[in-house]
Amino acid sequence: MGLCYSRFEISQMKTPKPIASVSLDLDNKWSYLKTHGSPGWESFPTYLDVVVPRVLSFLEKRKLAITFFVVGQDAALEKNREALAAINRAGHEIGNHSFHHEPWLHLYSEGQIESELARAEEHIERVTEQKPVGFRGPGFSLSHATVKSLVRRGYLYDASTLPTFLGPLARVYYFMTAKLSPQEKRERKALFGHFSEGLRPIKPYRWQIADSGLIEIPVTTMPVFKLPIHVSYLLYLSLLAPALALSYFRTALALCRLTHVQPSLLLHPLDFLDSNDVQDLSFFPAMKLPSEKKLAIVNAVIGLLANEYTLVTLRQHAFEVSQIQNLAFVEPRLLEQRSS
Ligand SMILES: [Zn+2]
Predict the structure, then answer these.
(1) Least C-beta-crowded within 10 Å: which of 14, 93, 105, 336?
(2) E strand intervals along 119-225
(3) What distance in angstroms lies between residue 138's CA and the mean position of ligand 1's atoms?
(4) What is the pLDDT along the chain (340 residues), one digit of tens a residue?
């Protein structure tokens, strides 16, 4: 009598792999042009019909389900309907990546945030048949008003923080390559975050706001050093020194192990595209890399992560975190929305 387990199952029970999550911010061509102050974004040029099938086939080969953060404006347009519906059919989670994809979302008033979230939810749900329970702000922008609104709207988690000290440097680089008016520069003042973002925790926590259960799953940065480890950054490193990117990621994983951080890895469409797939985005340095080379690096990175962790969606990651007794509470200490 009793249950019989195979040797394989018993070894899995002894050493179950911890979980790690993978997400992709489905930024579209127009949103990059818009942030960069380049003309032509107003007609919402799209590459979703190219990139979505490529990413889905990559994930299918690896039998992975991840989280796609979708921009409401894309869901509102008929031309993107098929690509977005396919993500749902393939069994992935759909999160909310705002409606307008404005990295100055933290300047919105509470009322503006509320309608921004609602409008995105409405179009995302209509096209993908999923009601988002997770949010990621464009350009990692987050405000007190946004957290309050997410709590009010019943979200399970936010994933908008990137605890790094390098944000201001990334912004300087962006301003150097963009042609922006003083007004546009003011709007983008907090793009990629202030230096103080580096002081935020890397491990998940609960926002201390009202009687909120809202979980924060930070985009993982290298423990101790707080340097970015998302795939676009690794691809950028690989331009400087091809061997460097993977050993840098291995170091990050070793530090995650030592500090008991369960990573949440971030992908972007441009990790799968090159300058033959999409023109006008050459201000991103890694667009010079051929897409086959990028895919090989993405594959190696995901492989290293999957060796040590069971890869899940952010919703599953947040659910597991929500079960932790004595999970840390963190005060928002976020940018306040415009008071006028
Ligand atoms: Zn984005």
Answers:
(1) 14
(2) 134-135, 157-158, 205-207, 215-216
(3) 4
(4) 445 666 655 555 556 899 999 999 999 999 999 988 888 999 999 999 999 999 999 999 999 999 999 999 999 999 999 999 999 999 999 999 999 999 888 889 999 999 999 999 999 999 999 999 999 999 888 898 999 999 999 999 999 999 887 766 666 666 666 677 777 777 766 666 666 777 788 899 999 886 778 999 999 999 988 889 999 999 999 988 878 899 999 999 999 999 999 999 999 999 999 999 998 888 888 898 999 999 999 999 999 999 999 999 999 999 999 998 888 888 777 655 444 3
User: Per this entry, what is the length of the chain?
Assistant: 340
Q: How far is the CA of 329 from the centre of ligand 1 (A)?
A: 26
Please tell me the distance between residue 95's alpha carbon and the centre of ligand 1 in angstroms: 12
pTM of the prediction? 0.89
Q: What is the DSSP string of 68-115?
A: EEE-HHHHTSGGGHHHHHHHHHTT-EEEE--SS--TTGGGS-HHHHHH
Residue 125: strand, helix, or coil: helix
* Dihedral Cα 340, 34, 55, 284, nearest 10 deg: -120
97 CA to middle of ligand 1, Å? Answer: 7
Question: Cα(189) to centroid of ligand 1, in Å?
Answer: 16
